Amino acid sequence: MDPGQSAVLPTVREALRTLSSSEDGDCILSTLGSLKRYLGGAESPAPPGEQEEFARRHFSDVLRCLVGRLSPGWLELLPDGQLEDLWASFFLEGPADQAFLVLMESIEGAALSSWGREGRSVLIPPFLPQNYFPLLGEEIVRVLQALVDSLRGVGPSTLSLQSSALLRASVCFPSEEILGVLVPRLTALTRANCLWQRVCWRLVECVPDRAMEALLTGLVEAALGPEVLSRLLGNLVMKSKKAQFVMTRKILFLQYRYSTPMLQSLLGYLAMDSQRRPLLIQVLKELLETWGSSSAIRHASLPQQCYVSKAVLICLAHLGEAELRDSREDLLASLMAGVKSRLDSSLPAVRRLGMTVAEVASTRIHPEGPPLRFQYEEDELSRELLALAAPPPAADSPSEHGLPVVCSWVTGRPTGLCCFLSDDELVPYDMSGDRELKSGKTPAYVRDCVEALTSSEDWERWEAALRALEGLIIRSPAAAREVSVELAKVLLHLEEKTSVVGFEGLRQRALVAVVVTDPVAEYLTSQFYALNFSLRQRMDILDVLTLAAQELSRPGRLPKTPQCGSPSPASQPSSTQASAWRAVVEERIRSKTRRFTQGSARRGPDASPNEFNLVAGYFFFPLIRHFDRPLVTFDLLGEDQLVLGRLVHTLGALMYLAVNTTVAVAMGKALLEFVWTLRFHGDAYVRRGLLSAVSSILLSVPAERLLADLPDELLEAQPWLADVAEQDPDEDCRVLAVKALLLLEKLKGTLLPLSSS
C-alpha cells in the first residue's frame, strides 16, 4: 500500500468519529469539507489515488454515518440550509450506485428510527408508486425532449449515460402511473410533429422482447384511438415479431379482459396503414376460424365468445369488399360453421350471439347475396354488436340484392336457405280479407272442438275452437276425460293454419288443461322418445308436463280422482317457466340454510294433500328410462344437447314437485344416478340442470331417507360439487354448485356419524 492511500484511513476514521458525536455545526461543516476533497468537488481535491480508495473502501461508510445522523434538529445546526446542501452533495456527486443502495438500505431498515415517522417521510414519499412513477414519466419526457432538440441542432448532440439508462429502465418496466404521464404528453407532442413521431418509433423499437408485452398492452389501453396508437408505434408490428405476436395473437385470442374501445384502437391501428392491412385480413381469418370452431364454442365462456365476436365485427368494419373477395369462401365457411354450432346451443344468449354476428358478417362478406336475417329479441349486447360494424356502402345495400333469408328464433333453425341463394321469394300474407270472429262459430262442447281442429276447413271455426278449448275442458272435465288421449294427440300435432295471435300459448294451455283434468302422462312420455317427432314437439311435451305437474302439486287445489293408470304432467321449464320454479327452489334453500334445529325441516304447506303424489312416477320414470338410446332422428347424448338440457331441467322440476310423495325416494335415487352419469357434460345448460337437480333431491327427499338410502352417493357428490364451484367456466354453474353444497352442509353433521358407524 503506497503512502497516499494509507493517509485516507486515519482521516476517514477521525471524520466518522466527529460526525457521529459532535453537535457543533461549524465542526461538522469543516469535517464534511475535508471529506469532500475525496469526491473531487473541493478547491484543492485529493490526489486521484486517494479519491479512488475513498470511493472504493470508505464512501458507503460515510454515507451510512450521514444517514444515521439525519434528523430535523441536526440539519438545523447551521442556518440557511448550509448543512443540508453539503449533506445532499455527498449522495448526488459521489458514486451513484453506492448512494442508491445506502438510501434503500436505510429506508427498509431502522437507520432512520431515531428520526421518527415525520422525519422518515421526508425521504420515503418520493419513492411511493403514486409519486415515483409520475416523476419518472416526467423525466422520460425531459430526456426525449433533449433528444428531439439535438436532432433539430438546438441542444447537445448526444444524451448523457444517466439519461439513457433512466429512459431504458423506465420503458422496460412500464406501469399505469408512468404511461398515465407519458401517453397524454406524447399524444400532444407527436401531433403534426414528424421528429417526435420518429423518436417515439425508435424508442419502442429498442424495447427488449421481455418488456414488449407490458409496454404494448399499456399503450393500447392508454391511447385514445387508433390514430394516437399509430403515431406512437409506427409500423412496429411489421418490424418486431414479438410485437406482432402480442398485438395479433395474445391480446385477441389468449385474453379477453380488454374493453371494446381498446379492441377498436388495436384493430383500427392495423387498418390505418397499407403495410399493416394484410395483417388485419389475416387476423379476421383466424378470428372467424375460432368463432366457427365447435370445440371453442363448447369450452369458451360467453364473455370470451362475445370478445371474439366484437373483434370480428370491428375487423369487418375496417375492410372493404375488394379486400375480402379473395378470402370470401374461407370466411363464409367459418361463419356458417359458427352459426350452425350456436343455433344448436342450449343457451339462448349463445344462439342470439350467433344470429347477430351472422346478420352483420354475411352482409359484409357477401354483399351480392341476400342478407341473412333472424327473428330474435334484441338485447343490450346485440345492439352493441350491431353498432360496432359500420353500415356498408350504398352500392352494397342489402335491399338491392333480394329478400332476406329468415330464421326462426323459436326453433333456432333457418326456415329458408342459409347459403345466400335468392331463388325463392317470400309472398306477403294477404290480410285484406280478415274478419272479426262471429259468436256463432264458437263450439259449445269439447267433442265439437276436436272435430273443428281436425277436419274443419272453416278457418274462423278452427280458430274459435282453439280459443274456446281450454275453458271447455275446465268446465266439462267429464267430457274431456272421454277424449283425453285423442285430444292430447290432436293438440300435440296441431299446426298453425292461419295467423292466430298467441297460437303457441293457446295450444299449450289447452294441453296442460287436458293433462290436469285426466292425466295422460303415459301417452306424452311415450311420444317423447317416439320416431317422427320434431325437436320442437319433444320440448313442447316437456313444457306441458312441467306446467301440469305444477298445477297438480299446487296447494289448495280441489282434489280430482285420476283414472287408474293415467299419470300426470311433468315438464321442464322453458326460460320463463324454469325461472319460476327455480326461484321457489332457491327461496327454500335460503330458508333451510338459516335454520339450525335438529331433525327434518318442514317442507311447505301441509294443509292439503299433494295431488301429484298419485301420478308422479308416470311423469318421471318414462322420461329418465331411455335417455341413452339414440334414435335415427334423435340423439340426446349426441347433437341434440338442447333437448337434453331441457330434459334435465324437467326431471329436476318434477323431483322438486314430488316433495312429500311416496315415490320421492325412488325418484331421488334414479335422478342422482342420472346426474352422476352426465356430470362432466360439455354443455353449460346441461350442467346447470344437473346441479339444479341435485338441489331438488336434497330439498324433496326426507333427510333421514337421504342418509339411510343414499349416504355413499352424497359423499361422492360433495367433492364433485366443490370442484364445480371452484373451476367450472360457467358462472351460473358455480353458483348452483355452491347452493347445493350449502344444502349438503346441513346434512354433514348427521351424515358423518352414520357413515362411520
UniProtKB/TrEMBL annotation:
The keyword Chaperone does not apply. One of its GO terms (molecular function) is Hsp90 protein binding. The keyword Cytoplasm applies. Keywords: Cytoplasm, Membrane, Nucleus. SUPFAM superfamilies: ARM repeat (SSF48371). It comes from the Eukaryota. Residues 273-370 form the TELO2 ARM repeat domain. GO terms for cellular component: cytosol; membrane; nucleus. It is found in: Cytoplasm; Membrane; Nucleus. Residues 566-579 have a biased composition (Low complexity). Pfam families: TELO2_ARM (PF25320), Telomere_reg-2 (PF10193). Residues 443-549 form the Telomere length regulation protein conserved domain. GO terms for biological process: 'de novo' cotranslational protein folding; protein stabilization. Residues 556-579 are annotated as: Disordered. Signal peptide: none annotated. Belongs to the TEL2 family. Regulator of the DNA damage response (DDR). Part of the TTT complex that is required to stabilize protein levels of the phosphatidylinositol 3-kinase-related protein kinase (PIKK) family proteins. The TTT complex is involved in the cellular resistance to DNA damage stresses, like ionizing radiation (IR), ultraviolet (UV) and mitomycin C (MMC). Together with the TTT complex and HSP90 may participate in the proper folding of newly synthesized PIKKs. This is Telomere length regulation protein TEL2 homolog. The lineage of its organism: Eukaryota, Metazoa, Chordata, Craniata, Vertebrata.
